[in-house]
Specification:
The chain is α/β, with parallel strands linked by helices. Helices cover 48% and strands 7% of the residues. The protein contains 19 helices and 5 strands. It has helices at 17-23, 37-42, 47-66, 82-93, 106-118, 147-160, 199-213, 217-220, 233-238, 243-254, 264-284, 307-315, 321-333, 338-351, 356-366, 372-383, 398-405, 410-415, 443-458, and strands at 2-7, 28-35, 71-75, 95-101, 123-126. It has a 5-stranded parallel beta sheet, with helices on both faces. Strand 1, helix 1 and strand 2 form a beta-alpha-beta unit. The longest helix has 21 residues, at 264-284. The chain is globular.
Length: 459
């Protein structure tokens, strides 16, 4: 008897419940990944993320081959073809059952419903959630809309039943399995080699962060020039590592401090919980991942959407150094520091009065760690249109943000070389020069315009 493990955004062999379940008492196990380039196109997947995904699949193929499980990559083109591709594969390899992890976003839920209805063999979906959307809710059964009580409930649940981290299945004894053929190129790519794509390398990254930097996380996390964050977001987005593994390592290094939301370790746990919160919101309120605002009244905001201002923001030539440095970091590296994501998002929505959906799409088009739910949640937070959103009158001043979080201008000078000769406060408000633009808008004036836009819909 042969069983099949269907990998999705869970490209690891450690702590993989579906893989462990399939391997239990089964000698013949195969693995498959359905490559869906049309689906990736619809979700404007970044070239650097495509390259990262391809590398991760190659690494997974080698890891599975080492334990005697072949990984086959099938070009299914689109989710709609998943049932047919799986039926054909299972007939060819005499597969009796499929194991996979439950996914909670709209398109993935519909894909799995179609598969359950059309497959010629059982599909066993196993919940791989850190905190399932079905298990975390308010006392009245309704989902949370505010992060703070959600995070308290999650901490209580995790402390009461600490998540189990599963070992890699034991190696199979049948004939030696060779690694799968390299994953084919499936669209435009950008080099992702600065990001580890193997499980072991990502685990080393996790261990190093928890042992050396987690103790200073709260103090250092907001400064883009300091290596104060874990930089595990890309690995988490593809499932090269699980939140359970992160929590277990964090507790091993930091002990009971993890349950104190004000501690350094507890602050990093909060970041994992924010990720879960946005997944819960996307599941319970699916309109947010269909291009709609969580706060429906804000759909009436008449965003001016000036194309020239948007282009200046996108290209990092707004005349606000911290904004431009951040946007250039994104363009060059496919990643942006979290504090800078908040600054640039606030600037686009609140200073330039451009619809948050424009920014959401641009980030998806460029980020290696783009997570659909988290990206949407972050943008709606910045635009004051989402759940638990920043109050509409909370508008970041890009100049003071730069002065606060890059006081000496080290980060700015790295990405805005035109300002390399400036020192101190001058770098945050540079004098007019031939090589760097003047500010494209006046922050104080634009702030007043934004307040009026929100006041109009409230009235």
């Amino acid at each position: 008897m042969t069983v099949l493990v269907w990998f999705r955004n869970d490209l690891r062999s450690l702590d993989h419940p579906a893989l462990n379940t399939a391997c239990k008492d089964q000698q013949n196990v195969r693995a498959v990944y359905l490559l869906c380039p049309q689906q990736l196109d619809e979700h404007v997947t970044a070239p650097i993320r495509r390259h990262f995904l391809r590398r991760a699949l190659d690494e997974l193929g080698q890891q599975l081959a080492a334990i005697g499980i072949p990984l086959d990559i099938i070009n299914a083109e689109h989710f709609e073809r998943a049932p047919r591709c799986l039926n054909d594969y299972c007939r060819e390899h005499d597969v009796s059952a499929i194991y996979a992890h439950t996914e909670w976003l709209v398109d993935e839920i519909q894909r799995d419903k179609d598969c359950a209805a059309k497959l010629e063999l059982p599909l066993h979906l196993i919940d791989d959630s850190f905190l399932s959307p079905l298990s975390i809710g308010k006392a009245d059964g309704l989902p949370y809309k505010v992060f703070t009580p959600f995070s308290r409930r999650c901490r209580d649940a995790l402390a009461a039943e600490f998540p189990r981290v599963r070992r890699r299945p034991a190696a199979k004894t049948p004939p030696q399995i060779t690694a799968a053929s390299p994953c084919p190129i499936f669209g435009e790519e950008k080099d992702s080699s600065a990001w580890p794509a193997s499980e072991e390398a990502v685990l080393r990254q996790l261990r190093e962060f928890c042992a050396e930097r987690a103790v200073d996380y709260k103090r250092h996390r907001d400064f883009p020039e300091i290596e104060g964050t874990s930089r595990l977001s890309a690995a988490l987005a593809l499932g090269l590592i699980s939140p359970r593994q992160c929590l277990a390592r964090l507790q091993q290094e930091c002990g009971e401090d993890i349950w104190d939301s004000k501690s350094d370790a507890g602050t990093w746990l909060n970041e994992l919980l924010w990720r879960e919160f946005y997944r819960h919101v996307a599941y319970h309120f699916p309109r947010v991942v269909k291009g709609r605002a969580f706060q429906s009244a804000t759909e009436a905001i008449p965003w001016p959407n000036d194309q020239a201002l948007y282009d200046a923001w996108r290209e990092g030539r707004t005349g606000y150094p911290i904004v431009d440095a951040a946007m250039r970091q994104l363009a060059q590296t496919g990643w942006m520091h979290n504090r800078l994501r908040m600054i640039t998002a606030s600037f686009l929505c609140k200073d330039l009065q451009i619809d948050w959906r424009w920014g959401e799409r641009h980030f998806l088009e460029n980020l290696i760690d783009a997570d659909f739910a988290s990206n949407n949640g972050g943008w709606q937070w910045a635009a004051s249109t989402g759940t638990d959103a920043a109050p509409y009158f909370r508008i970041f001043n890009p100049t003071t943000q730069g002065q606060r979080f890059d006081a000496d201008g080290h980060f700015i000078r790295r990405y805005v070389p035109e300002l390399a000769g400036l020192q101190g406060k001058q770098i945050h408000q540079p004098p007019a020069s031939r090589g760097y633009p003047a500010p494209i808008v006046d922050h104080k004036e634009r702030r007043n315009i934004t307040l009026a836009l929100f006041k109009a819909i409230r009235d």
